[in-house]
Amino acid sequence: MKGASAYTRNWGEQAVRTARPRPGPCLVERRFRWLEFPVVRRVAAGFGVVLGVGATRLADLVLAVSETAACAVCHGATSAVLRLWRDGSSVCCEVRGEPAPGLADLAGRGDGAQAMRLSLLRQVCDYVCVEADSSGVTVRVAITVAAPPLPG
User: Fold this and answer.
1) Domains in the chain and their CATH numbers?
2) Phi, psi torsion values for 44, nearest 5 degrees
3) pLDDT per residue as tens digits for the range 104-115
4) Is the per-residue pLDDT at 31 higher than 70?
5) What is the pLDDT, as a whole number, of residue 114?
6) d(Cα 148, Cα 113) in Å, to the nearest integer?
7) In sequence order, what are the residues at sequence separation of 6 or more whose Cβ sits closer than 8 angstroms to the Cβ of residue 151?
8) Which of 64, 119, 125 is nearest to 95 (CA)?
9) Tens-digit pLDDT profile for residues 32-71
10) Which of 20, 74, 121, 146 is the most buried (most CB within 10 A)?
């Protein structure tokens, strides 16, 4: 899968490795248009609050969702769909942007702003994947919001 990566986070003495997020029941789905990022951030913050995410990880979650949305629409898509769901101790986010000219190679290269967005996502998220083709751009991230339970 082009652009996929997994990262290890350390919660105390436990190392957590997040693989590709499992598709789960979508708890939030919202269509948004270019420049409606304040709405996207409010939706992400509300979702995190409902889940009881702590303040520090809530800020990371809102940042990750906002940058994921920007990645999906920054190259010409006029609208996109935001999906949020829970997968164990992680919140998963997927944004699908509409097709736009010149998207086929977005995952492999992009402008400086896109590279900075992806770098930032890789710093705060446990999983980042960008897929771009003629059907549009799909960006998926997963961010651990709670320490997993200690083994039995």
Assistant:
1) 5-144 (3.30.565.10)
2) -65, -45
3) 444 445 568 878
4) yes
5) 78
6) 33
7) none
8) 64
9) 988 899 999 999 999 999 999 999 899 999 999 999 998 8
10) 121
Which DSSP symbol is given to 150?
P
Residue with tokens 């000219």: 101
Q: For the chain, what percentages of helix, strand and coil (3-state, to nearest 5) are there?
A: 30, 30, 35
Beta bridge partners of 128: 5, 141
How many Å apart are CA 109 and CA 101, to the nearest integer?
A: 15
Which residues are paired to 138 by β-bridges?
96, 131
Cβ-contact 18, 66 below 8 angstroms:
no
Specify the pTM.
0.77
Residue with tokens 């994921």: 68
Q: For 107, which DSSP code?
A: T
CA distance 143 to 120: 13
